[in-house]
C-alpha cells in the first residue's frame, strides 16, 4: 500500500474500488479545483475592491482639500 491511502481505506475490501474507480476521483479533483479557484477569485476581487475604495477616498480627500484652499 502506498502512503497516500488513509488507514481506514487500507483494510477495505477490494470490491469498493473495482467499479468506476476513476470517476469519483476525477469528480473530487474537479470539485477541489473549483473550490480553490473560487477562493482565489474571491481574494482577488476583495483586494481589487479595497484598492478602489482607498483610491476613491484619496480622490475625495484631495477634492475636499482643494475646495478648502
> Could you give the order of the helices and strands?
HHH
| Strands, count | 0
Instruction: Estimate the mean pLDDT confidence.
Output: 81
| Share of helical residues | over 70%
Quaternary: single chain
How big is the Rg? 26 Å
Topology (elements, then pairings):
Elements: H1 7-10, H2 15-18, H3 22-68
Describe the structure.
Helices cover 80% and strands 0% of the residues. With 69 residues, the chain is mostly helical. The protein has a domain at 21-68. The longest helix has 47 residues, at 22-68. The mean pLDDT is 81.
Summarize the structure.
The protein is mainly α. The protein is 80% helix and 0% strand.
Features:
69 residues, mainly alpha, single chain, 3 helices
Amino acid at each position: 500500500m502506498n502512503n497516500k491511502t488513509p488507514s481506514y481505506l487500507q483494510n477495505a475490501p477490494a470490491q469498493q474500488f473495482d467499479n468506476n474507480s476513476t470517476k469519483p476521483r476525477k469528480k473530487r479533483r474537479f470539485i477541489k479545483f473549483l473550490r480553490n479557484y473560487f477562493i482565489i477569485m474571491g481574494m482577488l476581487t476583495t483586494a481589487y475592491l479595497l484598492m478602489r475604495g482607498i483610491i476613491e477616498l484619496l480622490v475625495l480627500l484631495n477634492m475636499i482639500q482643494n475646495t478648502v484652499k
